[in-house]
Specification:
This protein is an alpha+beta fold and 236 residues long. Helices cover 25% and strands 21% of the residues.
């Protein structure tokens, strides 16, 4: 599926110039993603090399980052990571820095895959946002809301889910969809072109919660390709 560049005009994305602006800008008028575009200095690859091989997701705390025997250019990257952690924590967030060698996959996805490689919306019972930045490795991908359809609304998929549920298309069925997060996953349309979140950019994206003024930002983790470096991701 071809991608289009972040610079392509899309009215739901608003670019900002500072952390203060990304914090203070409200989601309104259909805008559901804010991007602080940054060209970061430092060798983030050196950090990953010093962490060494692994499997799955490795969380990195500040003490481990400070203890890495990095070069001067690696120290620039470490300082950037520490600065971003401080910025988000200063905004009462709880960011996590992960070195991602691989994500778990649905072993039996059924009619609706629900792992992070599926286009999906984050959800919460209270107002909140998702923050993320990829420093190394393939970045997240977004999908225009106008190019997406909930998988549970596709007739064939809904029929299969109804068979799985074993009942009528009623409130109980809709609760079944919510409990299994099926209603949060989307299929791209035939002409959809996902957009890349890019490396180094700090994003704040809208979440699906009761009373949200805008639709959630639809996104997914990038496909894993052999030979690519682990992904260095900050998320909150």
């Amino acid at each position: 599926m071809p991608h289009f560049d972040l610079l392509t005009d899309y009215p739901r994305i608003r670019r900002v110039q500072s952390f203060r602006e990304i914090v203070k800008t409200p989601f309104a008028g259909g805008v559901n993603a804010l991007c602080w575009s940054r060209d970061l200095a430092g060798d983030f690859g050196e950090i990953v090399r010093l962490i060494g091989p692994g499997e799955g997701i490795i969380s990195l705390n500040e003490d481990r980052l400070r203890s890495l025997p990095v070069s001067a250019i690696g120290r620039v990257a470490v300082d950037q990571l520490l600065a971003d952690l401080r910025l988000l924590r200063g905004h009462d967030l709880d960011p996590v820095l992960n070195c991602i060698h691989g994500y778990p996959r649905d072993e039996a996805p059924g009619p609706v895959p629900t792992d992070v490689f599926s286009f999906h919306a984050d959800s919460a019972p209270v107002p909140t946002d998702t923050w993320l930045c990829t420093y190394l490795g393939p970045p997240s991908e977004g999908l225009r809301n106008e190019d997406a359809q909930r998988r549970v609304d596709l007739p064939v998929t809904r029929a299969e889910l109804l068979r799985q549920y074993g009942g009528a298309d009623d409130d109980g069925f809709r609760e079944f969809l919510r409990e299994n997060c099926y209603d949060l996953h989307y299929a791209p349309g035939p002409l959809a072109r996902p957009f890349s979140f890019g490396q180094g950019n700090l994003w704040r994206i809208a979440v699906d919660f009761p009373g949200s003024p805008v639709p959630p930002c639809i996104h997914r983790a990038p496909a894993q390709v052999d030979g690519q470096p682990p992904r260095l991701l900050l998320i909150s």
